[in-house]
Design brief:
The protein has 122 residues and is mainly β. The chain has a single domain, classed as Jelly Rolls (Sandwich), CATH 2.60.120.10. The protein is 0% helix and 52% strand. Strands 1, 2, 3, 4, 5, 6, 7 and 8 form an eight-stranded antiparallel sheet that branches. Strand 5 and strand 6 form a beta hairpin. The radius of gyration is 14 Å and the shape is globular. The two termini are 27 Å apart.
């Protein structure tokens, strides 16, 4: 197995309606390029994994606990373990990079779609 791949070759996981993640999993970390359709919603949830992220394209309204921020390209977030958070994509949708540690084992049961062209990189 190679240590290298291309994001376009990674089949997306349908995490929520209008939200897919292309997951790259290491032994201690999960990284995902997440594509959000316009105005899609990641409902409030929490997980044991700490989450760090970066907006690559588009915009999101990201809520962590009681704090909400409108975020565009280059903006980042840090969500501690088991802290409630939710995301609402802007009118043009968004592409974000999320990093989770420990890995997102709860995604293991989600069936992967066939690889297709990602929204990023263009």
């Amino acid at each position: 197995m190679s240590a290298f791949d291309d994001i376009a070759a990674v089949g997306p996981l349908r995490i929520w309606d209008g939200v897919v993640a292309r997951e790259i999993r290491g032994e201690q970390t999960t990284m995902a390029v997440v594509e959000l359709d316009p105005k899609s919603v990641v409902p409030e949830h929490h997980h044991v994994s700490e989450q760090l992220g970066l907006v690559i394209r588009g915009s999101v309204a990201f809520r962590v606990r009681d704090e909400t921020r409108e975020l565009g390209p280059g903006a980042t977030w840090s969500v501690p373990s088991d802290v409630p958070h939710e995301v609402r994509a802007g009118p043009e949708g968004a592409v974000v990079l999320d990093v989770f540690s420990p890995p997102r084992h709860d995604w293991s049961g989600i069936e992967r779609d066939e690889p297709r062209a990602p929204r990023w990189p263009a």
